[in-house]
Amino acid sequence: MLRRLYDWVMQQAEHPRAMWMLQVITFLESSLFPIPPDPLMIPLMLARRAQAFRIAAICTVVSVAGGFLGYAIGLFLFETVGKWVFETYHLMDTFSSMKDGFDEWGAWIIIAKGMTPIPYKLLTISAGVFKFNLLTFTIASVISRSMRFFLLAALLYYFGPPIREFIEKRLEMLTLAFLVALVGGFFAFKYI
Predict the structure, then answer these.
(1) How far apart are CA 3 and CA 168, in angstroms?
(2) What pLDDT digit, counting tens, does each position of 94-140 carry?
(3) How far apart are CA 150 and CA 53, in angstroms?
(4) Range of the domain at 107
């Protein structure tokens, strides 16, 4: 079943609307959506290797734009939408301890955690709640998201065929590793 899903995603990556779908997922992941864009971004970059850096640039811009929505949710809608997001991830107790970290290390927290499997939406909403400087938030977001997406683009551009072969041979193991990293990101956000 996993192999059929992988083959289907690879076929979808070649579809003309794949970039639009990736942009929607990337935008929403920065504020609400629980799944990161990587499951579509990686096949898309593998299918369109020559466009890998263009895809990374688009995803960076779209992710930062989605980050502004997350910031606005934190600033204006935390009591309704923002709390719901944190409660959905069982992170309300962690949220209250984040204020000191943002006051002291705000930009570095966004840069470091924005490159990891830690859900970016939790950072964007928190930045809005804490009224973190919007210019600093923007710069830190551009740095962290571009580092994440362009590193992935570089790996897939320069090592595309061997990486694709590696993924296809070890699909189940890599899927499990991705899920562990995703869940680990939530735990890391909670305890780090």
Answers:
(1) 8
(2) 777 777 777 788 788 888 888 776 778 888 999 999 999 999 999 99
(3) 6
(4) 2-191
Return d(Cα 152, Cα 94) in angstroms, integer: 29
Which of 89, 48, 64 has its CA nearest to residue 141?
64
- Buried/exposed code over 11-27 (b: 16+ C-beta within 10 A; e: otherwise): eebeeeebbeebbbbbb
As a whole number of angstroms, the distance between CA 13 and CA 79 comes to: 38
Q: What is the mean pLDDT of residues 16-30?
A: 88
Which two three-digit tokens encode residue 179?
């899920």
| Structure tokens that stand for 180 in this block | 């562990």
Q: Which two tokens stand for residue 134?
A: 């919007």
Question: Domains in the chain: how many in total?
Answer: 1
